[in-house]
Amino acid sequence: MIRKKSKGTPTKPAKVSAKKGPKKEAEKATPTKKIQPQKSRAWDNLLQPILKKYENKKHPLDYKNRYQLLVMTLLSAQDSDRHINAIAPAFFEKYPSMKELAAATPTAIMEQIKGVRNFGNKSQWLAAIAGALIDGEIPNTMQELTALKGIGRKSASVIIRESGGHAEGIIVDLHVVRVAPRLGIAEGDKPDKIEKQLMEKIDKRNWNGVGMAISFLGREICRPSNPKCSECPINSACDFFKQIRK
After folding, report:
1. Closest by CA position to 127, among listed 154, 140, 108
2. How far is Cα 57 from Cα 177, in angstroms, rounded to an integer?
3. How many CA atoms within 13 Å lie on the side-chain side of 161?
4. Which side of the chain, N or C, has fewer Cβ within a 10 Å radius?
5. CB pairs under 8 A, 24+ apart, for 85-92?
6. What is the distance between the alpha carbons of residues 121 and 110, in angstroms, rounded to a whole number?
7. Measured between alpha carbons, how far is 117 from 86 in angstroms, rounded to an integer?
8. Confidence at residue 246, expressed as pLDDT on a 0 to 100 scale
9. What is the pLDDT of residue 178?
10. What span, in angstroms and rounded, lies between the C-alpha atoms of 85 and 18?
């Protein structure tokens, strides 16, 4: 909506600040204005550098098969991939397949994951999943995966992507929640709303790749503090970078 100027009100001249020398590095600045998502940009083309860079990069969870991928993805929710990678060897030595896990009680499972965040619920969920998938056949669709205890859309999309399945959503982890609004492709801090915005702007053929591409960018370059903007391969398309360069 265009505001009408009120009649008879003189326009104040803008204050011009004196130059104080060269601009500081982009990484040190913080934009003050709220970044609004851009709807008209060709995001599939703009994101090509990171889509290509991270196309075949495996998820940081160090899984060996789909059973391990499912378990580790569930355990990593609200926890770090590094922590889950550290406890995984002992867990899978105790429960090498879905068969052994199905024979375990939630209490026994809990003993193996005590240091994991929300370990009480996660032990219950793992026991329920193992009971439901006793034959070892792990589903690979969004509907079937999210029907399992403790598996949400993000976890399901991780499993589908790492299994080479057909994407039905986009991975939105904590890194994507931070980076997508910085780029200007989405706004807000709710994963489900950010995923919806990404799905509206990105061609479905790129859904499997774009979530982890943005996530890897956030892990390696677009850090929470002191982001390495000058090293970013898509800084020319980034609203955050444009604002701090002003």
Report:
1. 108
2. 20
3. 29
4. N
5. 85/60, 85/61, 87/112, 87/113, 87/115, 87/116, 88/62, 88/63, 92/64, 92/68
6. 9
7. 14
8. 72
9. 98
10. 53
Residue 40 pLDDT level (bands cut at 50, 70, 90): low
pLDDT tens, 202-218?
Answer: 999 999 999 999 999 99
Amino acid at residue number 117:
R
What is the residue whose two structure tokens read 């706004």? Answer: 187
Q: What is the 3-state secondary structure (H, E, C) of the chain?
A: CCCCCCCCCCCCCCCCCCCCCCCCCHHHCCCCCCCCCCCCCCHHHHCHHHHHHCCCCCCCCCCCCHHHHHHHHHHHCCCCHHHHHHHHHHHHHHCCCHHHHHCCCHHHHHHHCCCCCCHHHHHHHHHHHHHHCCCCCCCCCHHHHHCCCCCCHHHHHHHHHHCCCCCCCCCCCHHHHHHHHHHCCCCCCCHHHHHHHHHHHCCHHHHHHHHHHHHHHHHHCCCCCCCCHHHCCCHHHCHHHHHHCC
Among 135, 75, 62, 85, residue whose Cα is nearest residue 109:
75
